[in-house]
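Researcher: Let's do a round of design. I'm pasting the structure tokens now; please hold your answer until I've finished.
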């Protein structure tokens, strides 16, 4: 990334959520790179950007396609790269023609001049890399939006080069294989966690075991989920803390904490393998999950030895079966890069798609009921405000809320709203407001600011409020992701 000359950060706030990445962004800027931030609000990352673009909520797809169209129509794309390494470009080009500057300006509320400025930068400054936030996928057209964004580096040939590419999910990390595991059992009845509460009721589930998860806080339609958990005949939770979900449990089995077991770790952000050493024995009655399941298997008359123990021998077996040529003593000295690691992804220009190329026209979209090329569909929702939840800089979802020092740093639950929206409704900064829709309502304090646009309600996730009670259980267009963003709500002064 530090070799990039242009960095476009789209729908991500690394100043709060990925400070490791921010280090490299700042180093690239020191070397002369230009940074463009595209986000619905002026986030904490804005101070590191040379250009800030704030489109309307849910219109990122239109903006991306308009940039594509401008670059194509003005013959500023990499013709050689597109011809050799991409598939379906002509169909994509026909769709992109619909996204004129005038249309994009109307939908996104970004001026034509600003759209052209971004497009010219992408077309002319190389190498160019695009950093995409996970939040982009968590809206109703999230899949198609991410597809449109991911194709921008390909359009200008900035793939497979130092400082280029689309940075989203880390697939350069080594694969870890578990030895001696049972084969996957087919035809297991599952539930869609997007509507977990409704699924529990409809499928007549009477007993549940929940491990290392807090769906009451993290899943949509949390009100329905709470009601379903209350009616279960038996609920067991395995966790290190008494979470909001664990409060509904009949039995809580305490799991071992981080420094009480051995582990091999890999990251969704960097490519290193790391060893987590066991420092102390589990406290009290807590156990590593493998021991919990071995003990349960024994008491139920099953062969507990089919479940591996948590020990150094198992760690060595994982390394062996994963063909990672490093021993534990070496890992104890620090992180390890595998021998086949390449700093540049797709340097060989070989892509794991049905066509073997980057697909402007994607195969398999019919299974999702989606067009083969990205296309925008207006959302039919007349709600006066759009709710967006953002990650707090203090916690990860509901984790760490049991740490006193973190709790002391956090404020009373609040929401960011636009100053003009607040004044129109007689709401003053710091006053309590109610955010509501047909599902539920929550009460919190208003923080008025021009850093968010009109019609937006921005609420940091992880606060002591039932935020997801406002979120209906819906899947995104592609990939069964959950729609957490761009939720229709209204607001009023608290009464």
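Researcher: That's everything. Go ahead.
Model: Designed sequence:
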């Amino acid at each position: 990334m530090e070799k990039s000359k242009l960095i476009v950060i789209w729908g991500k706030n690394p100043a709060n959520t990925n400070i490791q990445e921010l280090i490299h962004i700042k180093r690239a800027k020191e070397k002369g790179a230009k940074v463009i931030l595209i986000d619905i609000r002026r986030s904490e990352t804005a101070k590191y950007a040379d250009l800030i673009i704030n489109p309307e909520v849910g219109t990122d797809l239109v903006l991306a396609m308009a940039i594509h169209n401008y670059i194509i129509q003005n013959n500023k794309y990499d013709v050689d790269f597109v011809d050799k390494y991409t598939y379906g470009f002509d169909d994509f080009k026909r769709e992109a023609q619909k996204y004129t500057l005038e249309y994009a300006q109307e939908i996104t509320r970004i001026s034509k001049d600003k759209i052209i400025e971004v497009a010219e930068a992408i077309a002319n400054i190389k190498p160019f890399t695009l950093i995409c936030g996970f939040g982009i996928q968590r809206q109703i057209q999230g899949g198609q939006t991410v597809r449109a964004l991911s194709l921008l580096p390909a359009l200008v040939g900035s793939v497979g080069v130092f400082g280029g590419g689309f940075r989203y999910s880390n697939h350069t990390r080594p694969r870890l294989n578990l030895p001696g595991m049972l084969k996957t059992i087919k035809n297991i009845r599952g539930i869609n966690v997007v509507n977990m509460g409704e699924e529990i009721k409809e499928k007549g589930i009477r007993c549940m075991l929940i491990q290392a998860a807090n769906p009451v806080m993290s899943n949509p339609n949390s009100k329905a989920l709470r009601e379903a958990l209350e009616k279960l005949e038996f609920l067991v939770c395995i966790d290190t803390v008494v979470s909001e979900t664990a409060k509904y449990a009949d039995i809580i089995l305490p799991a071992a904490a981080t420094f009480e077991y051995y582990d091999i770790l890999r990251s969704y952000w960097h490519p290193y393998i790391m060893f987590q050493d066991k420092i102390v024995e589990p406290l009290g009655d807590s156990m590593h999950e493998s021991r919990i399941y071995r003990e349960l298997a024994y008491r139920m008359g099953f062969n507990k030895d089919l479940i591996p123990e948590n020990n150094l021998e198992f760690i060595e077996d994982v390394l062996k079966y994963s063909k990672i040529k490093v021993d534990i003593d070496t890992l104890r000295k620090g992180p390890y890069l595998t021998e086949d690691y390449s700093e540049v992804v797709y340097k060989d220009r070989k892509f794991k798609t049905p066509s073997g190329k980057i697909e402007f026209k994607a195969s398999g979209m019919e299974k999702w009921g989606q067009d083969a090329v990205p296309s925008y569909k207006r959302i039919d929702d007349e709600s006066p405000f759009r709710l967006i939840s953002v990650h707090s800089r203090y916690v990860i979802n509901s984790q760490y809320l049991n740490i006193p020092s973190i709790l002391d740093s956090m404020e009373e639950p609040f929401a960011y709203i636009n100053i003009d929206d607040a004044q129109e409704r007689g709401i003053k900064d710091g006053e309590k407001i109610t955010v509501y829709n047909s599902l539920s309502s929550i009460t919190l304090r208003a923080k008025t600011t021009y850093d968010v646009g009109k019609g937006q309600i921005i609420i940091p996730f992880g606060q002591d409020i039932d935020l997801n009670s406002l979120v209906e259980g819906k899947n995104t267009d592609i990939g069964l992701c959950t729609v957490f963003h761009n939720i229709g709500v209204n607001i009023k002064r608290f009464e």
